[in-house]
Amino acid sequence: MTRNRTDLRYRYMFHQANMRVHDVPVTTINGKSGQYSLLMAWTEVVATEMTRLYVYFDCLNTLNANAQQYYLASQDSQAG
């Protein structure tokens, strides 16, 4: 079975026609209205979804001395 080379390397390919902005209608994406090219709209939507689905930041606050103790304790537990 042969594959088209665009299947492997160029999964998302945008040409100049997809980057035009001046003659496109106003669109609302993520609560912001404006004239977006296809590339701009795709980037906004994909970045928002990746952030929503995969980014989770814990808010942890620790002193450097405590972080050093945690690190040393983990090194000791891995060694023995």
Describe this structure in words.
The protein is mainly alpha-helical and about 80 residues long. It has one domain (about 5-80). The chain contains three helices and two strands. The protein has helices at about 5-10, 40-55, 65-80; strands at about 25-30, 30-35. A two-stranded antiparallel sheet has the order 1-2. It is elongated, with a radius of gyration of 23 Å. The mean pLDDT is about 80.
Please describe the structure with a list of short key phrases separated by commas or semicolons.
80 residues; mainly alpha; 2 strands; elongated
Biggest beta-sheet profile:
2 strands, antiparallel
Which segments are poorly predicted (pLDDT under 50) over 5 or more consecutive residues?
none
The radius of gyration computed from the alpha-carbon positions, rounded to a whole number of angstroms, is: 23 Å
Q: Indicate the percent of residues in helices.
A: 40-55%
Structural class: mainly alpha
Widest sheet: strand ordering: 1-2
Taken together, the total number of domains comes to 1
Distance between the termini: 51 Å
Mean pLDDT: 81
- How many individual helices? 3
Q: β content, as a range?
A: 5-15%
Order of helices and strands: HEEHH
Shape: elongated
Assembly status: single chain
- Total beta strands: 2
